[in-house]
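Supplementary Text 2. Reproducibility record for the structural model of the 669-residue chain.

All settings were left at their defaults, and a single model was retained for analysis rather than an ensemble. We include the record here because the model underlies the residue-level annotations in Supplementary Table 4.
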Amino acid sequence: MPAYYRAILHDFLADDPKKVLGILTASSGDSGFAELKHRQTKAWRREIEMLRAAACSLVAEAHEYGQWTLLLEYPILRRRGRVDAVMLAAGVIFCIEFKTEDKKHSRQTDQQVEDYALDLRDFHEQSRGRQIVPFAVSAKAATAPPVLTPGGWTDAVRPVWRANGADLAAHLSSAFHEAGIMAGSAIDGAAWDLSAYRPVPTMVEAAEALFAGHNVCEIAHSHAGAINLSLTSEKLVEIITLAQREQLRVACFVTGIPGAGKTLAGLNVVHNPALRQEGRPPGVFLSGNGPLVKIVSAAIARDFKRRTLAQGGERTASTFIQNVHSFVRDAMDKPDKPPAENVVVFDEAQRAWDAAQNAKKTGQEISEPQTMLSIMDRHQDWAVLVALVGGGQEIHNGEAGLAEWGRTLRDKFPHWRVAVSPKALAGDTSVAGHRLFEDGGAGALRIQEESALHLEVCLRSFRARRVSEWVDAVLNGSAEKASRIAAEVREFPIAFTRSLATARWWLQTHTRGLRRCGLVASSGAVRLRPYGLELSSGFRQGNRDLYIHWFLAPPTDIRSSNQLEVAASEFECQGLELDWVGVCWGGDFTFDQPEGGWSFRCFSGSRWGQVNKEVDRRYLLNTYRVLLTRAREGLVIWVPSGDAMDLTRPPSWFDATASYLKRCGLSEV
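Retained model, structure tokens:
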């Protein structure tokens, strides 16, 4: 999707300003946002004036500057917005955001334009390896001094320059000379404008885009991950279409490595325009992750209001994503009626409740897989249940596991068909070695293996595909393997520190633009309280909207994760992600140096006790797997020093853990 307007500076100066304004107005179309068009036109007119004045000065300074390319309203798809102007100055990229009425510079504008520049660096093919200089132009602000890049600076995105309507040309010239030292060959304007742009959205960004009517595959293009995600989505649409046409009941099992986009694939399919029935989605996305449902629903409602200036997003968000337990309760209240939807997508289906847990929670003495299949089996025509299955993410007792789905289908619903990823049949590492049919027998079930139902490329960590392998090696006690992997993922910084203050400093210095950072910790790490981090269930559950603001509030909001004051536990952050993460290590899971393995503990009353049950140990290990895989761009691990005067925080536990992490290839900051 090219810019609204593109020309070299010589041609831009030759064009009538009214012509340029007309092109911008004609190209704007219907963006889906509620716009005050007169205000936008006025802003464009002022921007054109400032750019013409700057271009005149630049060309007068050096005739060859007239060959620089100017692009107006260039799309930044991940943010579903447009950067006001991009100037391709030989081998340097200026990313320019205008505030035509502002009388002073603001941090908010700095963050906005810096974030655009970071997106170009990370996702725009023709910008890869180029020097990118973000410019925040507040037209009526006082003149700001030039910005000099600190010595030793290695990032392609330079610090933000501030300019006003009068000094823009002078600052552009200074910035060009400052950054041009590192610039490569001249950039071709047409090639840059039409370049592949492959953003990787967060879960929240993808949900907002889908709700706004976009296909998530359009904004989730991450090399092989784009193809993989598209193939999985297309295969599911094909299966659903066949089930509808031939009146079939089909259970689909989608597998994938952590962060590969299983949730995105499920959301994309449920809200695929090709499957809509009478203007409504054919299905519903269900999740047992209560915090995720709340946070995504709140994000959708906020985005709906921002785009339309209307209320009602909360109601319509409930048609987009629902809590699976609420869906089941509603269905059980109407035992003779099928649900309104013919398709349900069950996220993290391996975490569905077993019979004992389901009886405790709902009074139904059958497993949640059997409950879900019974509800969908009420349809007289057709039904599809899509189970998104991960591995190593089980963090709570009472979870039935993948095999319960296989047993239920084979013994209770043999008339259903099964479309399944081969990984779910073979017990691949992506499903933590579990299999759909534990004994290999599918009985009378008709099984259709589909390789497209496996997602094998990590989308979450777009900078490093091997981070999950490093985490696996660390948790498995394979320090040598972890060290080798750490040496190969230099694009994804991983560090550790013994100081919480240093961890906060590290996160603050790495987090730029509108990127999100935050602290995470195990819910069992309750003895982080002396350091000012409260993890008790009463605190977490007693603040109903705490983590909605934590994930969604802008960085400057005191409730934002970026403030680094509150840590999210595994329950709040599972299924979601941050750009930069600080993992706060607790006394519940520390390395035992003499034994060469992990110690598992739970806190009760005023002391620690040992966790002896194997299943509970697995849940605790998976808790740290969740925490260590929430970051998209980089990770710092804080291991406390402990306190010899406090029996609940013995320094030896943490010293051994820190020593082990060093052996896993981490450098201390």
